[in-house]
Amino acid sequence: MSDIENELRELLDEDVSRAPLPGRPSRPLLRRTRRRQVGLVAASAVTVAAVVVGSIAGLQALLGKPAKIVPAQGPERTTTLVGVTITTPQSWPLADLWPLSLSIATYSDSFASVGSGGAADQTGSSPIPVPTGLPVFQVANYDAGLVAACGTGASVPPDGALLYVALDPDQMQGLTKGPRPPDWPVALGDAPTDGPCGSGLYARWQSGDIPYFAFATFGSEVSATDRDQLLGAFDGMSMTSVRLVDAGHPGLPGPGYVVASGVAGPDPWNLLVSPSSDGGRVPVISLEVAGSSSDWQVGNMTDIVVPDPKGLQAKASIQGNTLFEWGAVSSSVDRVEVRLDGGERFPGEIVAIPSSMGADFSAFVVAMPNAKSGMMVALDANGSEITSARFVWDTSPGGVCLAMEPPAPTDKPPGDTWNTMEAEAALRNALAAAKTFYADCQEYSLFSPDIATAIEPSLAYNSSSTATSPGVISIRDVSATTVLFVTATADGRPFCIADDTAVGLTTYGTIDARTVAECSDTSWP
Amino acid sequence: MSTTLAEATDERVGRLEDLYVRHAPAAVRLAFLITSDRDLAQDLAQEAFVRVAGRFHHLRVPDAFDAYLRRTVVNLATSSLRRRRVERAYLEREGGRPAPASTLPDVGVRDQLRAALRRLPSRQRAAVVLHYYEDLSEQQVADALRCSVPAARSLVSRAMETLRREIGREDV
């Protein structure tokens, strides 16, 4: 250890002796804390109520007309949720219900559970039916909505087939008499039996410390193909031992449809579509990716607006060494692809959103290992480019910073007509881009013309310390805490703007400044 | 035996008090080292406690209360420093006074180091305190600062570089 590190440690130890002693908490402080606890629990309960009631409303709307059966066709999708991996037809709606379980577990000390009389018995006169068990997911050959099909009174259409998988909380808490459930694999019963979810096929098993159960039910007119497909999906499930605390999804807005899934190296990921949690009509697209510690990272795209014909709204997420581009595309987009700066291309997957979500767009996702920078491109059916967006993932030492913005408009003012006002406006916009970068990275060191272009593509940049051209912003004197921008008007008058976060000052000038210190006025004339 | 509502409430308040007594001193020390302000440190530690204990039942890992509290203290402290820096810059600009940091007397190395530490950007200062006072690993510093491990490493490294430069040491 160096001298300065030793001195620093000693200094901190010395300084901390001057820190005040907090003593015992005051009553107002404790009251404030309690109020916050109670407020949050109440807010959770209200949210759960809103989600469940909304889901039930949606279900009732669905029940009002016959559910449309979706044939099992096209590619299959392999999805991992709470330790269960299942492969099902891509066309079958798969609902991730685990966020509902998190909410139930948050606000309720007891919940309905398998083998103990069902939900209605335990929730008494509550108007909100609570699903049986802690639901993980359900998949069906029709859109069963985002409400659990077990314990909430939902029924299966005549030609429907549905599989529901949940955790058994009573077994987890040792409240169930009898032996421990067998380890996976297990088989569903051969013949329907009556159980907490109604008449159907049941199976119980345990994976690690977690007890699961499954319920499969079929309408009286279900096709043999769909029945076999669903039973095959159950038989083909595999289990991964998970800790419930890491089972993930806390960032999701609520239960949602899994519209795409995959793995990035060893880590599974899911693209989901959920109703907006604030009651908005436009659904939310979410990407959740398992991390190395089984903790799930979640990104949400809200307030989606995908106007035709520029029908692309993209977001970027990073997990491990994989870069994800994902988001929404309009109906005019036939396919999407990523074109890396190195020339490599990655085709994206465009997936339909269940019609019950009322979305007028589709979702897309592209997963790329070791990608650094490139263009996200949307193409029409003829292969013509409709729109594109540039991204940069800078993995230089010191930060992992990502910029993703729409492409430059084609009508930006040419430099040879720049007047004072345009030069000043351009510098302000360049500084805004730098501050956007600083907010993410907490330093300017990596801010470069490439990154500036990605964040604010309507401007042209260079890193020249000497040539000042009209219409071009020179980025200079970049350090962890400083950045300087210089440009010139069409008649050659220079303008500068600088920011120094160490002192919290933005300064201005009308000189061809080489350093932040030279650009030192408090405003432009 | 039944428990009355009042008894249940008292019990909860008692648990909160225990929680505070157990965790508040460390939170105050951390806040003080980042802000160098006794009153502000007390305020920040209390606010952090209210925020974290207020959502105690929502914490994904309640056992990691101290980690949640540490992260909240750091966030509040860096936000507070950022606000102060803006206020100070405004006052300097309005009053035309030089920055107080630039007028620090040239005293011993330790005082130079202390002054340089106070001039560091807030997140760098937090990273240094977490690493050298709390003895946290790079991963733990990154968790507390909600950034990647390379970013945390960079914050510490840049801070040390600045400190070395400011006190004129090139010993590493």
Note the topology:
The complex is a heterodimer of chains A (525) and B (172).
Chain A (H helix, E strand, L loop, with lengths): L2 H14 L10 H38 L11 E6 L2 E6 L4 E3 L1 H10 L11 H5 L10 E7 L20 E7 L1 H4 L20 E3 L2 E10 L2 E9 L5 H12 L2 E2 L16 E9 L2 E8 L9 E7 L5 E6 L10 E8 L2 E8 L5 E6 L4 E3 L1 E3 L10 E8 L3 E7 L5 E10 L6 E5 L14 H22 L7 H7 L4 E3 L9 E5 L5 E7 L5 E7 L4 E5 L16
Parallel strand pairs in A: 23-24
Antiparallel strand pairs in A: 1-2, 2-9, 3-4, 3-10, 4-5, 5-8, 6-7, 7-8, 10-11, 11-12, 12-13, 14-15, 15-19, 16-17, 16-20, 18-19, 20-21, 21-22, 24-25, 25-26, 26-27
Chain B lengths: L4 H31 L2 H17 L10 H31 L13 H11 L2 H12 L4 H8 L3 H18 L6
Helix pairs in contact in B: 1-2, 1-3, 2-3, 4-7, 5-6, 5-7, 6-7
What's a concise summary of this model?
The complex is a heterodimer of chains A (525) and B (172). Chain A is of the alpha+beta class and 525 residues long.
Strand share of the residues of chain B? under 5%
Q: Biggest chain pair contact, residues each?
A: A-B, 52 and 66 residues
Kindly report how far apart the N and C termini of chain A lie. Answer: 52 Å
State the total count of DSSP E strands of chain A. 27
Radius of gyration of chain A: 28 Å
Number of strands of chain B: 0
Mean pLDDT of chain A: 77
Assembly context of the chains: heterodimer
Q: Order of SSEs of chain B, N→C? A: HHHHHHH
Average predicted confidence as pLDDT of chain B: 73
- Poorly predicted residue ranges of chain A: 40-50, 56-64, 106-129, 396-400, 405-414
Physical arrangement of strands within the biggest beta sheet of chain A: 6-7-8-5-4-3-10-11-12-13
Overall geometric form of chain A: globular
Structural class by SSE content of chain B: mainly alpha
Number of helices of chain B: 7
Helix content of chain A: 10-25%
Largest sheet of chain B: none
How would you describe the overall organization of this protein?
The complex is a heterodimer of chains A (525) and B (172). By secondary structure, chain A is an alpha+beta fold. In chain A, 21% of the residues lie in helices and 32% in strands. Chain A contains 8 helices and 27 strands. In chain A, strands 6-7-8-5-4-3-10-11-12-13 form a 10-stranded antiparallel β-sheet. Chain A has a 5-stranded antiparallel β-sheet with strand order 17-16-20-21-22. The radius of gyration of chain A is 28 Å and the shape is globular. Chain B is mainly alpha-helical. Helices cover 74% and strands 0% of the residues of chain B. The radius of gyration of chain B is 19 Å and the shape is globular. Chain B has 7 helices and no strands.
